[in-house]
Design goal:
Layout lengths: L3 E2 L2 H23 L4 E7 L3 H16 L3 E7 L5 H12 L6 E4 L9 H7 L11 H8 L8 H12 L8 E5 L6 H9 L8 E5 L6 H5 L4 E4 L17 E4 L3 E5 L5 E4 L4 H4 L5 E2 L7 H19 L4
Parallel strand pairs: 1-11, 2-3, 2-4, 5-6, 5-7, 7-8, 8-11
Antiparallel strand pairs: 9-10
Length: 295
């Protein structure tokens, strides 16, 4: 029997409705409008597309939304001064600097300059450290989205064997940390696999929940998946173009083959992707509440 599809599109829609209601309530009861600024350096087409999507969503949800476009030749000091300005702006609760940055700017320096209370991407070392000890204010958006998908799909995580393929700071490491916490939607036994792992399939076949963020198209095949496992595919790989010039995308999992073995699986596109921006919005609402002592 083919797997049940976990639709990130549907779950994200549901969460966005909840956010919209909460924003309305914050405005009416506390005269508080969550504020988000997205800072874009240069005109990288992918970055422009991501930022446009974030701004569009923020506006739809009733946020105070600022799009700050800067030229590619902005100096590091100018960018740090800009972040400092938004750190001090009481109308802005979330600051997002779109990555990647031009080569002459130190990415870590920029991310570390953001006030941890306004770091809605949860990349600041303070927020990474809080996640590690189970006291996170904010969770990184993609892992947060994955966890919400599991919770809202009724997946049992307590005591489950979770295998994460990939160890990036954006997905692999934080989702592993989150799933290991003694908390709702977690409390699992977690294994992290990566390019140095010997006999990858030996590990993936043990997984009750397999989270794949390998960055390689169809890296996980059906023979690597246990019958009845829940498979979360984080990968988005461009593998060609249609005659109409539209990108053909696939995940890090061989979807067609694996869906015959898994009990649940996320598609690409329409799986984890739509959740990421939604969780950014949820973090921004939380940041607004934190700033006003309501969290």
């Amino acid at each position: 029997m083919a797997a049940k599809i976990i639709s990130g599109t549907e779950i994200a829609k549901q969460i966005r409705e909840e956010i919209k209601e909460e924003v309305k309530s914050l405005k009416e009861k506390h005269n508080l409008t969550p504020g988000l600024v997205t800072i874009l350096i240069g005109d990288n087409p992918a970055s422009v597309s991501y930022v446009t999507g974030k701004q569009k969503t923020a506006k739809e949800l009733g946020f105070y939304s600022v799009q700050d476009n800067q030229p590619a030749d902005i100096t590091e000091d100018q960018l740090l001064a800009l972040i400092d300005k938004y750190n001090k702006d009481p109308l802005i609760h979330g600051i997002l600097v779109q990555l990647p940055l031009p080569k002459h700017i130190n990415e870590n320096k920029v991310l570390y300059a953001i006030n941890p209370d306004k770091d809605v991407d949860a990349f600041h070392p303070v927020n990474v450290g809080k996640l590690m000890i189970g006291e996170a204010n904010y969770y990184p958006c993609t892992p947060f989205g994955i966890q919400q998908m599991l919770i809202r799909s009724g997946v049992q995580t307590d005591g489950a064997e979770v295998v994460v393929v990939g160890r990036s700071n954006i997905v692999g490491k934080p989702i592993a940390m989150m799933m290991a916490q003694k908390a709702k939607g977690a409390n699992a036994t977690v294994t992290i696999c990566h390019t140095g792992t010997k006999n990858l399939a030996e590990h993936t076949r043990r997984a009750d929940i397999l989270i794949v963020a390998a960055g390689r198209p169809k890296a996980v095949t059906a023979d690597m998946v246990k019958e009845g496992a829940v498979v979360i595919d984080v990968g988005v790989n461009r593998i060609g173009m249609t005659p109409e010039g539209k990108a053909i995308l696939c995940g890090d999992v061989d979807f067609e083959a694996v869906k015959e073995k898994a009990s649940m699986i996320t598609p690409v596109p329409g799986g984890v992707g739509p959740m990421t921006i939604t969780m950014l919005m949820l973090n921004t609402v939380k940041a607004a509440k934190v700033a006003h002592g309501l969290a």
